[in-house]
Amino acid sequence: MIQLIRGFRDILPSDVPLWQRIEQTAVELFEAYGFAEIRIPIMEKTELFARSIGETTDIVEKEMYTFADRQGAKQKADELLTLRPEATASIVRAYIQHKMYAGDPLHKFYMTGPMFRRERPQKGRYRQFYQIDAEIFGTGSAYADVLLISMLTELLRRLGVDDTKAHLNSLGCPECRPAYRETLTAYIDARADRLCEDCQRRKTRNPLRVLDCKVTACREAMTQAPELIDHLCDACRDHFAIVTESLADLSVPYVLDKRLVRGLDYYTRTTFEIHTEVLGAQSAVAGGGRYDGLVEALGGPSIPASGFAIGFDRLAEIVAQKQPAAVPAPALFIAPIGEEARARAFPWFIELGQAGVTCDIEMGGKSLKAQMKRANRIGAAHVLIVGETELVQGAAILRDMNTKAQQAVPLERLVATLVAELG
Ligand SMILES: [Zn+2]
Ligand SMILES: [Zn+2]
């Protein structure tokens, strides 16, 4: 038989209630702060991601699902398409394309959906993975960053994860970063022979990325490297101070993480990750930061923005440990015995569902014993039994599956009675 693609996954009905709870909790929280949902395409022109995520990143270099729009014909650059590896680029594109900055540039968006990266398959990593995103456009305020971090912390708390810690760093700005970059490049050049192949390539175009290389030799070579946080200009230092002071005011736990970097020029100032220790080793479940240069880099006006992405798959795994979600069970299972009873009972089933009573019915001709077995298996709270005798007597039997108590329900007021009792 045909199996799904390696690195892809099915989210089965037994897991979906948990996913829905996470999504509903996020939506409720984000909308309370004025975020509006945006829905963006799953595919974009490759160029959008190359320009926004950066040509020198692992994502763009190795991991994107890119293909030609049309086979055969000589390809033009804009006919190369990519399955979105993240959401921010598309949201920025939509913001610019629909001139949402005109009038009031301030907009808060959220979205949720699948992303695609051709990563090496490993446990907990998927090539189609899900993210929850939130972005704030049109303000450079440090408080916007605080809002994002506090929303993430609160979302996790509402989902039963209360050991979170925000890792924070500042990436500076076009005022202070160039000088730091030179200092860093000088440090790297003095140790270039000890660095991995990727870093050899990165060091000129993207020296900050050398700081977060996971290769042991690179980490050892970089232990004494100068830190950006110590080279901020006054404006960046003030901005960062507001973030940390406000988080402290709000009792949001955070730590300074000087190696938390993003290599591209339009990432500015605040950068953060939310870590938790659920599932053993401490690791990030969400990350984000300020990207004041991206809207302009993608062809829009100079408008500051910041945002985050939550790894939904991982979050679901974490929440499952803390607050497993039960598959919802119906309030009622209708068990008709015989052809005539079934014909009579089926419209009740339809009407009860329309009235909002969660219910199910036996549509085939199973025995009462088999039907009771099924009612038990799906966890129905009540069973309505109706056979020839009940039709003659004009009342069906409603059985409470917990207490085993039974009562007669007159057929002529059956739907109204059950709606009142179970709805
Ligand atoms: Zn600065
Ligand atoms: Zn390296």
Characteristics:
Rossmann fold; elongated; 423 residues; 5-stranded mixed sheet; binds zinc ion; BirA Bifunctional Protein, domain 2; alpha+beta
What would you say this structure looks like, in words?
With 423 residues, the protein is an alpha+beta fold. The chain has 2 domains: 16-176 and 232-322, Bira Bifunctional Protein, Domain 2 (BirA Bifunctional Protein, domain 2); 332-422, Rossmann fold, CATH 3.40.50.800. The chain has 16 helices and 16 strands. An 8-stranded mixed beta sheet has the order 1-5-6-11-10-9-7-8. A 5-stranded mixed beta sheet has the order 13-12-14-15-16, sandwiched between helices. A 3-stranded antiparallel beta sheet has the order 2-4-3. Helix 1 (16-32) packs antiparallel against helix 5 and helix 5 (142-158) packs parallel to helix 10. It starts with 15 loop residues before the first helix and ends with a helix. Bound molecules: zinc ion (ZN) (2 copies). Residues 172-173, 175-176, 232-233, 235-236 line the site of one zinc ion.
The assigned structural class equals alpha+beta
Provide the low-confidence segments as ranges.
none
Distance between the termini: 43 Å
Give the proportion of residues in helices. 25-40%
CATH top level label of the largest domain: Alpha Beta
Query: Per DSSP, what share of the residues sits in E-state strands of 2 or more residues?
Result: 15-25%
Output mean pLDDT: 92
- Return the CATH architecture of the largest domain: 2-Layer Sandwich
Q: What is the total domain count?
A: 2
- Rounded to an integer, what's the Rg over CA atoms? 28 Å
CATH topology of the largest domain: BirA Bifunctional Protein, domain 2
Main sheet properties: 8 strands, mixed
Hetero ligands: zinc ion
